[in-house]
Amino acid sequence: MSDSPSAFRPSYLKIERAKRHFDELHQVAQEYLATNPVTVSTREYPGGFAFTMDVQGAPEVMSAILGDIFHNLRSSLDLMAAALVRANGKPDDDVYFPFSGNEADLDLMIKRRNFDRAGDAAVKLLKETRPYKGGNLALRAVHDLNIYDKHRALIVNSMQIASPVIDTRPEGGGAPRIVGDPNKPSEMNLVFPEVAGLGGREVFKTLEELVEAAARVVESFEPLVAPAG
After folding, report:
1. What average pLDDT does the chain have?
2. What is the pTM of this model?
């Protein structure tokens, strides 16, 4: 990411804010997971075990932090779009980075969002980013999650949980035995609920992909506004 002054500096600042919120979210999540929010009840039967897991919901503040991340990433794209239009000598009122439901409707959305004022080169490059459903999943998720957050909180209370490890072939034979603490899962990961095509995907790895997707788009348009020479 460029640190030099540029027409896209406001976009880069929004991406940096998203990264700060990402760090905050990671801290909150680590503190939550450190409380061992999953309680495992173990019952032994002849030749095996049965587990019951009870999960405490994630802190509500996580949904607010996620909303801040999505808002900043989406805003970085809109600020870039406005900067491109100004660089092309056109008014930047009601200019937004366009998204569409499919590839066929992208030309219509380019006009509706007034992105066509940015010029032919910008429009051509925009189409290469594939900002539509079925195109660039991460980029489209930035848009969809930002809209989702405006109408309802994105609650991350979904987890991938692995039961305590069971040694099914203990040395010397005998019944299977639990390895480690029988009252704790062997692994816990926060995952997205079914929204924006991200259902079941690990939260932090996916958020990194969304941040990178927005940053790559902004950087790809930088040559169109870079000073000559």
Report:
1. 82
2. 0.81
